[in-house]
Every structure is written in structure tokens, then in C-alpha cells.
Design goal:
The protein is an alpha/beta fold and about 150 residues long. It contains five helices and five strands, in the order αβαβαβαβαβ. It has a five-stranded parallel beta sheet with strand order 4-3-2-1-5, with helices on both faces. Helix 2 runs parallel beside helix 3.
């Protein structure tokens, strides 16, 4: 019986909070706005890249869709950029990226990382935005323009 006593407060809170959770972004109807978001990806690995692209997809859905988004930019630098090199890119990752780019997401590639890893613009996904000033500078510039910064 002691397990039920310890779970009772949690279950009670869940019952009261559950009606507040809505996947259709109803909370934005009273305060509609266009969101500007910059995501950072610098961790190596295909799984991390897929995770971040999934976060972006869920983020857009959570705010009610692309009609409520002014701009989303994914800034990629460091070892993470290697995951997007054409010829060795995971097909599911390439497909997820292409889908998001087709809906309006910008894929920013750090120029400094490109130099350090000898990656050319032709090796990157189509429609990549090459960032000669560097990924971290781009993130700063976007924050100065009012973008919300996220690093999952």
C-alpha cells in the first residue's frame, strides 16, 4: 500500500494538469504570433542529427504549423556537419532534412568547420546556407534579431 500513497500526489496532479496539455496549439489562439527560432547542432552522430530534426518538426507542430512560424534556422558546426556530407549521409537523415527545408527551414553550415574538415559547398545538402562568419556568429546575429535559441 505504501507505493500507492507515494503515487497518489503524482496521479492527482496529472489528473488536474492533463486538460491543460493540448497538441493543437490552442494556447496560441489568444496570443497569435510568428515565431523565429534558431537551433544549434554541433554534436557528432546521425542519431543526434535525427533527434534535432525531430525536435524541429515537433516544435513547428506544437505552435500550430508553419503558418505560425516566421523562420526556423538550423545552424550546424563542428563534428555534426560531417553527418550531412553528401555521399555518406544517412538516407533517413537526408530525407528528414529535405522535408524540413521544403517546408521552409534554413540549413546553415559553418564556414569555419567547412575549412577545418575540408568540406566543400558541393558536398553539402542542396539549399545550404554557407556561413562564412561561422556558426556561432550566426547564432549571435539571429538572437540579436529576436530569434529564440535552442540547443537540444
Amino acid at each position: 500500500m505504501s507505493i500507492w500513497r507515494s503515487l497518489f500526489p503524482v496521479l492527482t496532479m496529472a489528473v488536474f494538469l492533463l486538460p491543460l496539455v493540448k497538441a493543437d496549439a490552442a494556447h496560441l489562439k489568444d496570443n497569435p504570433r510568428k515565431h523565429k527560432i534558431v537551433y544549434q547542432l554541433d554534436d557528432a552522430g546521425v542519431d543526434k542529427a535525427k533527434f534535432v530534426l525531430g525536435n524541429i518538426r515537433n516544435h513547428v507542430a506544437g505552435v500550430g504549423g508553419w503558418q505560425n512560424v516566421e523562420s526556423v534556422e538550423l545552424v550546424v558546426f563542428g563534428p555534426a556537419l560531417k553527418s550531412f556530407v553528401q555521399g555518406s549521409v544517412d538516407p533517413a537523415l537526408a530525407q528528414a532534412l529535405e522535408a524540413l527545408q521544403g517546408q521552409g527551414m534554413t540549413f546553415g553550415a559553418c564556414g569555419n568547420t567547412m575549412k577545418n574538415f575540408s568540406i566543400t559547398a558541393e558536398q553539402l545538402p542542396s539549399k545550404s546556407l554557407i556561413l562564412p562568419q561561422g556558426g556561432v556568429v550566426r547564432i549571435m546575429e539571429l538572437q540579436e534579431q529576436g530569434y529564440i535559441y535552442l540547443r537540444p
